[in-house]
Design a protein that fits this description.
single chain, Helix Hairpins, five-stranded mixed sheet, four-stranded antiparallel sheet
């Protein structure tokens, strides 16, 4: 009915086994309790008979009623070879009849003992009936447990089947989030995770379409320039110097195409990096190494790179290649748009979410109404293909981090590029300063 890997099969087996064990243990204790209670009562009756006789009292002077209690009762005196002070009770069977016998000290001087015997066949038959009834009830209860377990397991996997059915009918054009309020509370985290994945897929499809369209457009323009230059060159004969100049223009256009192709290849490499196994790394250490690399570059361009890292250490499990790509893109853009004699700040701080990494420049700022994370989106008068921030956004999504680009709000022109790393996958390293 279910495969060996089925969680429903495992749930059914465990629930049935646990319920059957519970029923068996409870029934066993119940039967033993009933049996011991009845036998104790019979033993007390025999003991009371023996005490009355030993105390020279009539049996009928005992407190036991009614008179039919004394039917099938046999009393005799037996002599033992050795004194036996303890009271002995045992059960015996003869001619398919069951008897309960009590040996009680009568006169220890001549080793005489009272042997009180009573037939308890009706009691034995009653106990057998009780045992049969308990056995029948156990079978019925076991069958009910099986039915309940099947129904319960079906109810538990129903939300999963609902999610599977909804996802199986989706394609890249008909992707819609799952309404978490329509499923049980226990499955809400799963629905939220799926919705997050759906959002990433939607963004991926959107950006891939924009990437294809943008790539075609970006490559079409230089190709048209090359063709036009060649056509103009072929119209009439020119001097060698003019041909050399035309070839230089063509080579420059080809170089621009190579930059576009290289950036597109970087997208493929990044997608491969997203599949790398995450490792535990000190993010602050990575930031320090990256800052050292860019400080020399900033000095050569007549700019300053300030650093301010808090806390001293912060461990996170992530793909270090993707983290490097994001920070490097932030610093490259900040230095590109920051004028000479101005400064760029790389800082980190701890907040309620985790670790916040910020790169603050003193450039011209951005138009916040434009989606600069889309492919081939450029702003300002600096050269570039417009794929850097697109790659940074993809890397941040793969890390489960949040990336943001906004203008400074401290009255100074410039941009703040931030990366928020979630603390669920990271922790602070205590260090001595």
């Amino acid at each position: 009915m279910f495969s060996k890997r089925s969680i429903r099969r495992s749930f059914l087996i465990q629930l049935i086994f646990a319920s059957a064990s519970l029923i068996f243990i409870f029934s066993s204790f119940l039967y033993l309790y009933i049996e011991n209670s009845i036998y104790d009562e019979k033993k007390q009756d025999l003991l009371l008979y023996a005490k009355n006789i030993a105390n020279n009292k009539s049996i009928f002077q005992s407190e036991i009623t009614p008179p039919d209690t004394y039917s099938n009762l046999s009393i005799e005196i037996v002599y033992l070879k050795k004194p036996h002070a303890d009271i002995d009770v045992y059960e015996s069977t003869k001619n398919k009849q069951t008897f309960l016998t009590l040996i009680y000290p009568f006169n220890l001087d001549d080793f005489s003992y009272l042997k009180v015997t009573k037939e308890i066949s009706p009691t034995k038959i009653l106990l057998d009936k009780i045992l049969n009834y308990i056995f029948i009830i156990n079978i019925a209860g076991f069958l009910l447990v099986i039915i309940y377990a099947i129904a319960l397991s079906k109810m538990l996997v129903s939300p999963v089947k609902t999610l599977s059915a909804k996802l199986s009918n989706m394609n890249e054009y008909l992707i819609s989030p799952i309404k978490a309020e329509n499923i049980p509370e226990e499955f809400e985290p799963l629905a939220l995770t799926i919705n997050h994945l759906i959002t990433r897929i939607q963004n991926f499809v959107k950006y891939q379409k924009e990437l294809f369209i943008g790539t075609a457009h970006e490559l079409k323009t230089p190709l048209a320039v090359i063709k036009l230059k060649n056509q103009v060159t072929l119209i009439k004969k020119r001097t060698p110097e003019e041909y050399i100049e035309a070839l230089k223009v063509t080579n420059k256009t080809i170089d621009e195409m190579n930059i576009i192709v290289s950036n597109i290849l970087n997208i493929g490499r990044q997608e491969g990096a997203q599949l790398d196994k995450p490792v535990e790394v000190d993010v602050i250490k990575v930031l320090r190494e990256k800052a050292n690399d860019f400080q020399l570059l900033a000095e050569n361009e007549g700019k300053q790179l300030h650093i301010n890292f808090e806390p001293n250490g912060f461990m996170a499990t992530l793909q270090i290649t993707l983290l490097n790509q994001i920070v490097q893109n932030f610093l490259q853009n900040a230095l590109k748009f920051t004028p000479k004699n101005k400064s760029v700040t790389l800082k980190s701080s701890q907040d309620n979410v985790g670790l916040l990494i910020e790169v603050i420049d003193e450039g011209c700022g951005i138009d916040e109404t434009v989606d600069l994370f889309a492919p081939f989106k450029r702003q300002g008068n600096k050269s570039g293909v417009g794929l850097g921030l697109f790659l940074a956004k993809s890397a941040a999504d793969a890390l489960g981090a949040k990336i943001k680009l906004e203008n400074r709000k401290d009255g100074i022109d410039g941009t703040v590029a931030s990366l928020q790393i979630n603390s669920k996958l990271s922790c602070i390293i205590p260090r001595n300063n």
